[in-house]
Amino acid sequence: MQRRTLLKLGLAGGALLAVAGASLALLQPARRDGKFTDTGRAIFAALAPAVLATLLPAEAAARSAAIAAYLPRVEAAIEGLPPALQAEVDELLTIAGSAPGRLALVGLRTAWAEASAAEVQGALAGMRDSSLALRQQAFHALRDLTSASYFSDAAPWAVIGYPGPRSM
User: Fold this and answer.
1) How many CA atoms lie within 13 A of 71 on its CB side?
2) Does residue 130 come out as left (phi exceeding 0), alpha (psi in the -120 to 50 range) or beta?
3) How far apart are CA 150 and CA 144, in angstroms?
4) For residues 96 and 146, is the Cβ–Cβ distance under 8 A?
5) 4 CB contacts (<8 Å, ≥6 apart)?
6) C-beta of residue 74 within 8 angstroms of C-beta of residue 149
7) Per-10-residue mean pLDDT for the chain, 168 residues long?
8) What's the pLDDT at 17?
9) pLDDT for the residue numbered 7
10) Helices and strands, number each (H, E), in the chain
11) CA distances (Å), 119 to each of 22, 46, 114, 131, 132, in order?
12) Nearest to 37 by CA among 83, 5, 71
């Protein structure tokens, strides 16, 4: 490789990194001070019907109430993670909450707040079946946080026939 070509590649790479860094600085965080921003709430409110599907109440008002009750449990689950893992989850949610990240990482064209359960399910299936380990890891993180947070409360246990922990 010629020196001139190497210099051009170096300058182009540096410019690309500068643009990417500036873009990331402009992203809206999904969590601030341990609480979801509108972005974080929209992500998990869209994930709940897609991941939990028929496990959520069928009636619209009860479904909305179940999702509203689940969102603080997701916040608490993330808050209970070690700081380094919280930072990784925050990065994932911030990237997934941005339009370019939602499209590139998640594969979801529609904004989280406007996406149907079927659209989110399709995007999650694409992440799960991706050949990129990063997309698979993001899928597992989003699915596991959603499921674990929803079932961390006793109210939905009856739907799956779980009587609760045995008394000793």
Assistant:
1) 20
2) beta
3) 10
4) no
5) none
6) yes
7) 65 56 64 90 96 92 94 95 93 93 94 96 96 94 95 86 83
8) 53
9) 64
10) 7, 2
11) 30, 10, 10, 20, 20
12) 71
The count of residues in the chain is: 168
Phi and psi torsions of 31, nearest 5°: -135, 145
Reduced to 3 states (helix: H, G, I; strand: E, B; else coil), residue 122 is: helix
Q: Terminus-to-terminus CA distance in the chain, angstroms?
A: 72
CA–CA separation, 42 vs 90, rounded Å?
Answer: 14
Q: Which tokens belong to 108?
A: 């979801």
Q: What is the Cα 10 distance to its own chain's centre?
A: 34
Closest CA to 113 of 23, 30, 26, 56: 30
For tokens 């799956």, the residue is 160
The whole-model pTM stands at 0.81
Residue with tokens 């008002």: 61
Q: Shortest CA distance to 41 belongs to which of 53, 26, 31? A: 31
H or E element at residue 6: helix 3-26
pLDDT score for 166: 84
Cβ atoms of 31 and 37 closer than 8 Å: yes
Q: How far, in Å, are 33, 87, 115 from residue 78 at the CA level?
A: 12, 10, 24
